[in-house]
Amino acid sequence: MSGTTLTRLRGSVRAAWQIVRGVVGETAYETYLEHHRAHHGTEQPMSEREFWRAHIDRKEIDPGSRCC
Predict the structure, then answer these.
(1) What angle is formed at CA 15 by the lines to CA 12 and CA 19, rounded to 5 degrees?
(2) Is residue 52 part of a domain?
(3) In a domain, 68, yes or no
(4) InterPro entries under this entry (predicted)?
(5) How many domains does the chain have?
(6) Structural domain of residue 54, as residue ranges?
């Protein structure tokens, strides 16, 4: 494989991995931090642990359309 092909392949794998992370919700904290910086810059954001606890609590209160 040439260097250019390998570079493109790595880029494609990284992009696909980011899509998978988004689909399974793994990027939720990163998205929260981006939103927090943009809209609540002077306030301290929740820690990652606090964020996930609140996220899970919200899902328990309002399960939406989950299957189980």
Answers:
(1) 135
(2) yes
(3) no
(4) Sel_put
(5) 1
(6) 5-61
32 neighbors 51 (Cβ within 8 angstroms): yes
SS3 41: coil
- Length of the chain in residues, anyone? 68
Q: Which residues of 24-53 are buried (b: 16+ CB within 10 A; e: fewer)?
A: eeeeebeebeeeeeeeeeeeeebeeeebee
Pick 43 or 66 by higher pLDDT. Answer: 43
3-state secondary structure of 38: helix
End-to-end CA separation in angstroms for the chain: 45
Instruction: Give a yes or no: residue 48 inside a domain.
Output: yes
What pLDDT does 18 receive? 76
Query: Does residue 67 lie within any of the structural domains?
Result: no
pTM for this structure? 0.60
Could you read off the pLDDT of 13-63 as tens digits, one per residue?
888 877 877 777 778 899 999 999 999 989 999 999 999 999 888 878 877
